[in-house]
Design goal:
The protein contains 4 helices and 4 strands, in the order H-H-E-E-E-H-H-E. It is mainly alpha-helical. Helix 3 packs across helix 4. It is extended, with a radius of gyration of 21 Å. 17% of the residues are buried.
Length: 155
């Protein structure tokens, strides 16, 4: 009985310790390593800047779809995992970022779905892999700063 209990506890411990969090987390979805340079070419070829903005990138030849483009990259207190970025491209309506849910600029359809074009029929899997490899380093995780209040004692 003790051996069975030990095996159960060891299995649970092993399962918990195998969990990895952060951008490299295997949780959800995993693709092969992509090529950042090729991903940058995909980003420009598919004219992502028509609807998005990304620090350091501009294309003045494009007609902008929105007055305020949807921001890519930047700092966030939430880790953008590989799986989250892949999902954002292949299923843009899966989970909309709250700051874009109520924009007057019609980024979101009346039924709550994203107006982002779905590229599943035109983008190859390799292009998707490379695009995500290009975008993921553009996100910087900034830890949440909590306000620490001193302890007060009753008089």
């Amino acid at each position: 009985m003790k051996l069975i209990r030990f095996i159960m506890i060891f299995t649970i411990f092993l399962g918990i310790s195998a969990c990895e969090f952060g951008p490299e987390s295997p949780k959800g979805f995993s693709l092969p390593k992509g090529d950042i340079v090729a991903g940058e070419k995909v980003f420009m070829e598919y004219k992502c800047l028509a609807c998005h903005s990304l620090e350091g990138y501009q294309d003045k030849t494009l007609i902008k779809e929105f007055d305020t483009p949807v921001l890519l990259g930047g700092t966030s207190s939430i880790v953008k995992t590989y799986a989250q970025l892949v999902t954002s491209v292949i299923n843009p309506s899966h989970k909309l970022v709250p700051r874009y849910n109520n924009l007057d600029e019609k980024v979101v359809n009346p039924d709550g779905t994203s107006k982002m074009r779905v590229f599943n029929d035109v983008m190859t899997v390799q292009e998707l892999i490379d695009l995500i490899a290009f975008l993921q380093p553009k996100y910087k995780v900034e830890p949440i700063n909590y306000t620490h209040y001193g302890q007060y004692r009753a008089l």
